[in-house]
Amino acid sequence: MGERRSACLLAVAVALQAAAVLGGGEQRSGGGAALLDPRGLEKFVDELPDMPRLRGYGVAEGGALVAGNLTIGMYDTTWKFHRDLPATPVFAYGASRETATVPGPTIEAMRGVPTHVTWVNHLPARHFLPWDPTLTTAAAPGTRGVPTVVHLHGGVQHSTSDGHSLAWFTAGLAATGPRFSPPPYAYPNRQPPGNLWYHDHAMGLTRVNILAGLMGAYRVASPGEEAPLNLPSGEAFDRNLVLFDRDFRADGALFMNRTGNNPDVHPQWQPEYFGAVVVVNGKAWPYLRVRRRRYRFRILNASNARFFRLRLSAGLRFVHVGSDSVYLARPVATDRFLVAPSEIADVVVDFAESSAGAAVLSDDAPAPYPGDPGDKAETVAVMKFLIEDAAEPDTSAVPAALMPHYPRPDAREAATTRRITMYEYAKNGTDEPTHLYLNARSYMDPVTETPREGTSELWDVINLTDDNHPLHVHLALFAVLEQRSLRRVDEFRECMVHRNDARACGIDRHLAGGRRHVVPRQERGWKNVFKVRPSAVTRMLVRFKPLSSGAASPEESRFPFDVTTGPGYVYHCHILDHEDNEMMRPMKIVR
């Protein structure tokens, strides 16, 4: 008992010292300025910006493509989110302080051509947003500076370049985390063409640093494979849309709560952050002038916790061509769709299908998602499209087949089956969460998942919580095979909390007769994020080998780097507030 008390006292001392270093956000988070009423901001007055584009490759004499070398900084600067808001203090990525943007520049890479990025931390000694030192947090006692580390989400890279949450570093490398890897980060880009994004991944600070502005889009292109598809292309007709929600104070400062839902346990942490202002490409409720033709929109949900259920007015629809980082085999048309935090929907919209002069993109997803049964969510605007009157020739198309040559998911190839259980723990006598675990273990507990390179595994993900959790697995791709609801879930949850043994708690009995849920057609391909339904079991085939066309040789079933070395990989819920409070586990790949 004495040793445990000493350890607790040491942990508190370290947390207080870290808080003194990073600060509590009192410097520039708006002080006592009132919370902004978003109804006072006029919608559709700012034009949608296209973020700066950085080429992630070089061109040698003769036109051959060679590895690219970029230096991208993280800067303490300001950003205008709305015409009528004062400039807002933010953290932003950019090639320089003057060109830093929120979101950051779009990196354009080429398949098979490496991109090397030196990420440089120029952030100040103290954070301008409040954060919670009682979480397991990237902070070194006795040093000053805001820790950061960059993860390329959806990227297939060595773990030394994966942005491990304990590989953080402060300005000037004055302090580094225990899994730090020196720059530059190497991205081989030896993966199928598709959509990725980069963002901060520092332990315990991810939700705060991304809220401050540290995120950006990344594309892997393959002209030889993509040009024959004849999808809309070019900077005018192929646009990234980065969606997120924020709250502001009247002076323009970003607002984040200072008081937690369980302040005697976690002074600042709350289970989810939701803002009342919807932001697209750094502008609140923007507009975009479009021609009466097809456009391609790569839609990323970069929110901390908000799900978006998107719909277009004026009779327009979406045609999905990709999900996360991989093209679909065939296009899928929908009138509306749900996109979770960190998910990417790659869609084509044909504005010639409507005679209207404008169309509004709107959202009606409950927050938190899925909400309580019977709750009716408010429909809110996201952005507006102003459609030109004149029709014009459009040589682009959506083909009947996209990339059907990727292997189809086959459960028979699984080398083993694992059960991953999602837990939410609450303070005694309340429903207020204190932390969330995977398999009843904290992030800092020893590794329990050791997949073998070149194999696939079946993962049965058991969600015992009331929330939908977007599960993200680093390095791997996966395909969802089925989702089944649990029966008498309270009884099963009670047993699992005490025993953490699905078989002993009779999981087969609780699944018997449970409802089977249809996986949306646009989400049946290979993904790196999936929405794990509450009170249900989601079965997924997780692929720990490269995604290649047709049957792969033993050599092609290995990654182009040694996955067994380095700090390793992780899997986690991508609701950032959950990830920061232990809903993440380490993963070690073996041979």
Automatic annotation (TrEMBL):
A molecular function annotated in GO for this UniProt entry is:
copper ion binding
**Cell location:** Endoplasmic reticulum membrane
Q: Which residues form the Plastocyanin-like domain?
A: 147-223, 426-588
| Role noted for this protein | Multicopper oxidase that may play a role in the maintenance of inorganic phosphate homeostasis.
Q: How does it sit in the membrane?
A: Peripheral membrane protein
The similarity annotation says: Belongs to the multicopper oxidase family.
Q: Where is the signal peptide?
A: 1-23
Q: Return the Gene3D superfamilies for the record.
A: Cupredoxins - blue copper proteins
- What PANTHER family is this protein classified in? MULTICOPPER OXIDASE LPR1-LIKE
The biological process GO terms on file are: cellular response to phosphate starvation
Q: Which Pfam families match?
A: Cu-oxidase_2, Cu-oxidase_3
Against InterPro entries, the record matches this protein to: Casein_CS, Cu-oxidase-like_N, Cu-oxidase_C, Cupredoxin, LPR1/LPR2
Which co-factor is required? Cu cation
- Keyword terms: Copper, Endoplasmic reticulum, Glycoprotein, Membrane, Metal-binding, Oxidoreductase, Signal
Please tell me one Gene Ontology term that the record gives under cellular component: endoplasmic reticulum membrane
UniProt name for this protein: Multicopper oxidase LPR1-like
